[in-house]
Amino acid sequence: MKQVRELAYDVEDCVGLYWLRIRCRLGDGVRGRLKHRLQTYRERRRLAAEISALSISERHARYGVNRDALQHRHLFPSYQSYSLTAAPVAAHAHRHDSHQLVDIKGQADALVELLIKQQLVGEQHVKVFSIVGFGGVGKSTLGEEVCRLLETEFPYRAIVSVSQAFDPTSRDRRSDLMELLKRVFWQVVEMKKLLDGIDDWKYEKLDKELRSYLKDKRYLIMVDDIWTIRAWEAIQSVLCDNNRGSRIIVTTRIEAVAKACSPAIGGHHIHHTQPLEFEDSKKLFLSRTFVNKECPEELEDVMENILKRDEANILALNYNHLPHELKGCMMYFSIFPEDYEVNKDRLLWRWIAEGLVTEKRGLSLMEVAESYLDDLVNRNMIQLREDIEYYWKAQMYRVHDMFLEVMVSKSLESNFASLLGGQYATMSYDRIRRLSIQGDDDRLENAEQPRKNTAASAGVDDGILDLEHVRSLSMFQHTGKKLLDQLGKFRLLRVLDLEGFKGALTKDHMGYICRLYLLSFLSLKGIEVGEVPSEIGKLEHLQTLDVRQTSVRGLPDTVTKLYKLERLQISYNGDANLMWKLPLELKKMKMLREVGFSVLGNHLQVAQDVGELDHLQEMVVYVDDITFDDNVLTEFANSLSKLYSLRRLIIRDVGYGKTLNFLDQLPSPPQLLRHLMIAGGIDRLPSWIMSLTYLVQFNMSWGKVAGDQLFDVLCELPSLETVCIHNYCYEGNVLVARTRHRFPELITLRIASGSKLPNVIRFENGTMPKLENLLVNFTDNDEKKIIGIRHLTNLKEVQLWGNESNLALHRALKHLKSENKRRLFESSSQFQIVVKYE
């Protein structure tokens, strides 16, 4: 596989070199093309020779690497070298005493208690308890232990395994179901004579006989290792609900499957298993290996290596079970340092730029990439954490430290990525494809020295980096300035991500970057750079340009030549008058999907061009309230109505007038809007907001909405989950969520600090039935009150923000504690109170 991947990389390099050296530019004409052919004669001959050299028969010589150096067994053992088939045998050998396993007993007792508790409250319908976690963490052992503990409660029990091969969609789909039914039948039937001739039964008879046998019996069936929702639906259809308090235990690696088996409503339950902690693994190993459960001192190091190896084997096994298209995406996490959290958009656009996302009919590459990410999350292989980033939830992803070690090992073995600095400072590489700088490394000081790429030097660590074939460069440390001085030599670079560099870029550096003609992804986020040169327009393959958190205050007009640009991110630097103004000829940027902070200039043509951006999904735009022509605003409103793909819109004004009242002129809103923020002069909410059936979050600030209008417009939206109210957005002293304000799906309500906000927030009976999170800021307000908290029956958490000396905050805190006591006395659900002092 490594040789094939290297061959594919070399083919891509040849194509890239063709683009750089030989391809005629559009508009050259016949004479220009003839002249170009003469000028590039030598280059074409050289490229032809390089292509001829890509002979598969010579691949061992061409792609040989120093495997010992790559593996560095004391740091990264070759996990594939260990036997992964012995584990199931060992598991079966000790299955008879699984109740003695470390850490299993506590989890099993908790699940048993939950099962029994539901029976005691008279819940008789079949309930499904899902145990989810990646392979090897003990899901099956835990489920079997629960079944063992419930022997007396459920005399009719069965344990059946499904596995990944179970396919209910195949032509002979019933054959899989029949085998499963037979296995259940054999275990639950006491008189085996009833099963005479079962092998000759047809599906209908088998199904009928099992239902008849179980109809008056309380059963417990464990279905082990379900991989798909379709498999569960097929199995569920043959397991009857006999209203006898029966239970089904399901084990799966896939989060989505667990949610399908055990929905949030109806008393079902999902249990997430975790790998044993190192100390628990050590106890288990000692109990199995030594009679006295103590390890001789001279074998301590050996034992620790074995324990680490076994944990790595489990993780490697889960990686090996991934579909081919997910393996590269999973291995991509090896580029990021330990404990590093990467933003969702950054990760997905990098995947796309690297060619790790394959096209699927009817889906954009971003939609396919999102499906990959969801799959990895569902398999519990990566961890998701949500953060607040400019009022919105930002999704951050990371992998467990041990899993990262496995991915790094596999990445180095297959030459997927090359890591420099820190613990990787002694690693040697031959042909570098993806370079990740994670710390100081002496070789970065020698980056400007050429390396002789000869057979004799292949795989030899001579202190000089071979950068000719680098296609991706990521920097996570301040070091590596000399490497940036050589950016002009990275001819084949597709991805340049300097977000973690925290250094400065000179004009020379920017000049080098603008000559990287194959660049698809460019992130300068957080870098000290003040200007983007006009030569940026030459990067015709660029898809992502991110200059947030820099001193860049605008972009050259040549940015409109970036016809493939899909994501353009630029920061708000405190002065909207110095921000990037949407340029003339904006309509040429047809592929744009995301546009960061921008200003709509007072130009009619630009306002019209916005409506030509058919793919636009996210937009942050400022509108000037001083120099604006009403015709421009009217045309801009018409353009917004044409953005059928728009998912997120943040619209603000520069001054303090009522400029945003023009929003009421939209002929029809973008119906797919999910996030909307209106921040600026407006004294009435546009009525079209009530038609946004997909709107999930609404933010508002600096408006002057009065009375019930705010909640009247929002309260019937069927998908609205979050409402955030910020400063200067409400005219009035009391904000009332009335009984008629249903908010059928609202989960979070946030009342921020600032002037022109209500002093009293009152909730009437029946409002916001699903509200879980209430956040209220008391900063600089000693009069604020919360009334009617008792009517929020689904409340899970209340957050209070403000100064520690704020009297209103302390009164509210006392009131909330009193309400919790009342709920405790009435046996209703309490809520958590969180106080954050500023």
From TrEMBL:
It comes from the Eukaryota. GO terms for biological process: defense response to bacterium; innate immune response-activating signaling pathway; plant-type hypersensitive response. One of its GO terms (molecular function) is ADP binding. Residues 469-805 form the Disease resistance R13L4/SHOC-2-like LRR domain. Keywords: Plant defense, Repeat. Residues 335-405 form the Disease resistance protein winged helix domain. Residues 116-293 form the NB-ARC domain. InterPro entries: Disease_R_plants, LRR_dom_sf, LRR_R13L4/SHOC2-like, NB-ARC, P-loop_NTPase, WH-like_DNA-bd_sf, WHD_DRP. This is Uncharacterized protein.
